[in-house]
Design a protein that fits this description.
Number of domains: 2
Order of helices and strands: HEEEEEEEEHHHHHHEEHE
Distance between the termini: 4 Å
Number of helices: 8
CATH architecture of the largest domain: Orthogonal Bundle
CATH class of the largest domain: Mainly Alpha
Radius of gyration: 20 Å
Structural class: alpha+beta
Largest sheet: 5 strands, antiparallel
Shape: elongated
Oligomer: single chain
Helix content: 25-40%
């Protein structure tokens, strides 16, 4: 699933390609999406909130997309061959010689200005870690309303608490601070949670600047634990382990030596382990 850095980078590139331009053609596979009504409207700006991409129109309406696991935005010049099949296009917006295509996103909706202001999911989002003025204190306040037995590895993915973190950053920031994913929220001090969130924000910002880097950087290179099951921890050489975590299970990665398992039920549940400045032609802006 694209994380906050990818969505913000996508929004910045779409803004460069589309902002200030009038929509000349539009079509959508979504029955409820009135694509024809976009023609003649203009793109005012493109931005992001956490993992949600928002195309603001001059009319006050908003095109809202969430990429889910497989969604992505691409930009092309008119007549250029697409990198994905047309059958996967959920929304196509043309502004003269420029084409923006949203592929396979589960959420593609056109909101009135009033519906946008009242959108439940967007209203309930926690502070965006890519916002220059992100309110860390508000993140800690929201976390404090959760049950003490909720696992830190789940808190970091709770978009109502903090927006923008996905599975990659969850694993990396927990490794950075030597916190086991199955540690209960009540077992860490507020300053520890603050440090986790601050580090995630710094990591996301580092990787959000367009153009897209060949791979995300964490410290002095790529991921230290994410998708490195069985490979040596770069800090102590212990083999990295992984397991599924959460009510909607996602695989989390950690070092069993650097991140010792907590005691009690949470620790027992964890076990020992488990298993450019401009958009290029035909650029894939975000992906799963």
């Amino acid at each position: 699933m694209p994380e906050g850095d990818t969505i913000h980078r996508t929004a910045a590139t779409l803004h460069r390609w589309l902002a200030g331009r009038t929509i000349t053609k539009a079509r959508s596979r979504e029955v409820a999406f009135d694509a024809a009504s976009l023609v003649g409207d203009a793109v005012a700006s493109v931005g992001a909130r956490g993992k949600h991409l928002l195309v603001q129109l001059a009319s006050g309406r908003v095109v809202h997309t969430h990429q889910g696991m497989k969604g992505s935005w691409h930009v092309y010049r008119a007549g250029e061959r697409w990198q994905r099949p047309a059958s996967q296009a959920k929304l196509v917006i043309e502004t003269g010689g420029r084409v923006a295509v949203c592929f396979e996103s589960p959420t593609v909706e056109l909101l009135t200005a009033n519906a946008f202001r009242r959108h439940r999911v967007l209203i309930e989002l926690g502070p965006d870690l890519l916002d220059p003025s992100v309110d860390i204190a508000e993140i800690l306040r929201r976390a404090s309303t959760l049950a003490r037995q909720v696992l830190v590895g789940e808190v970091l993915l709770n978009q109502r608490v903090v927006a923008g973190i996905g599975n990659v950053y969850r694993s990396e920031v927990l490794w950075e601070h030597r916190v086991h994913p199955w540690t209960a929220l009540g077992e860490i001090a507020p300053e520890q949670l603050e440090a986790l969130v601050a580090t995630a924000s710094e990591m996301l910002r580092r990787n959000a600047r367009p153009p897209a880097p060949p791979s995300r950087t964490f410290g002095f290179g790529g991921p230290r634990v994410y998708r490195r099951t069985g490979k040596p921890c770069p800090r102590c050489a212990t083999p990295i382990v992984s397991a599924l975590l959460g009510t909607q299970p996602r695989r989390v990665y950690w070092c069993p030596d650097c991140q010792p398992a907590p005691t009690g039920r949470a620790g027992q549940a964890a076990g020992g382990g488990g298993g450019s400045g401009r958009a290029a032609s035909g650029e894939a802006l975000s992906g799963g």
